[in-house]
Amino acid sequence: MATATSNIRSPSITLFGKGTVSYQRTAAPFQIPQFPLNRPRLTALFASLHDGNNKDDGSNKITKSVGLEELFEDSSYDVVSKDSPFHPRPLSSTQFSNSVSAGSRLRVAYQGVRGAYSEAAAEKAYPNCEAVPCDQFDAAFEAVEKWIVDRAVLPIENSLGGSIHRNYDLLLRHSLHIVGEVKLAVRHCLLANHGVRVEDLQRVLSHPQALAQCENTLTKLGLSREATDDTALAAKYVAFNKLKDTGAVASSSAAKIYGLNILAEDVQDNCDNVTRFLMLAREPIIPGVEKPFKTSIVFSLEEGPGVLFKGLAVFALRQINLTKIESRPLRNQPLRASDDSNNGSKYFDYLFYVDFEASMAEERAQNALRHLKEFATFLRVLGSYPVDTTML
């Protein structure tokens, strides 16, 4: 089966929105909610585990463990004036839920164009939000950091395609916090312009993961495949160019938006096709215990026998269930030679991303991270947030 290697990319415009947006914080395009200052002080504020002395020493290797005691002391949020427009206090889990149910008109960034599954995920996460499309994942992160939008909703893993490694790397590169997750059932459709039949098609366009998820169906149809940046962009391209020999794999919503005909529904090879998205914000939420919570962290360890086992044991010892572990090579870190000079082997230094089922408001989670900090060379809490128990 011939597979095209070229990519169709979205236009160079990074963000689509109303009016001219200034990147200066003094021109923030939305009203920041103010929260009362008389909340109880918490000992489990995690924010971010960056340490000011934990700098790159020129070898690109992180050598100093983060001071985790900062995690459990009163944070600088307590001294921020309620009148400051630049440093709002972190949302509590209660306020976070209320802001959604009240239908606050938040601006939420997602990667793709209208009709993308990410847009549906953003609207599920924040009903009545203003969904703001971005052409790349990087742009969505930057839009939140530069106060162009309030939140971002980005995919992190798919039940068939696995992890979205790019977003794992961006979580470490940027200083945003995970404030929630949302799971979306993905139902692919084969789309084409009106009047085009299945037998008229010679190729199909879509995101690489969508093409992989429909591989058996597309093979039976004898269609060549060509990758685009996202599924909805493929639908838009087919409609805009009035193609007669080309279809797209995208959502039924994309078909409606771009005026395409649905030739076949549920063309994915497995009906259990679910994508998990992360909800990102500039500030963390304060974790609670009134509902199931999940915590995401990233850490690195020294090389040695049983070190990773030791790192994961801090959770098992406290009956904390791990739901996800992902390893990524430490960027810009050269291969290190093995201590055994006889075999001449070399290996990567790795970062480990872990999700576990516990709130940072729980003592057992705090103790687990204190324990991990004793031998971790780097540790950062990415977020502690409510578990999504729904499915759409």
TrEMBL record:
The keyword Transit peptide applies. Residues 107-282 form the Prephenate dehydratase domain. It comes from the Eukaryota. InterPro entries: ACT-like_dom_sf, ACT_dom, Preph_deHydtase, Preph_deHydtase_CS. Its EC number is 4.2.1.91. SUPFAM superfamilies: ACT-like, Periplasmic binding protein-like II. Its main location: plastid. This is Arogenate dehydratase. Residues 296-386 form the ACT domain. It is found in: Plastid, Chloroplast stroma. Keywords: Amino-acid biosynthesis, Aromatic amino acid biosynthesis, Chloroplast, Lyase, Phenylalanine biosynthesis, Plastid, Transit peptide.
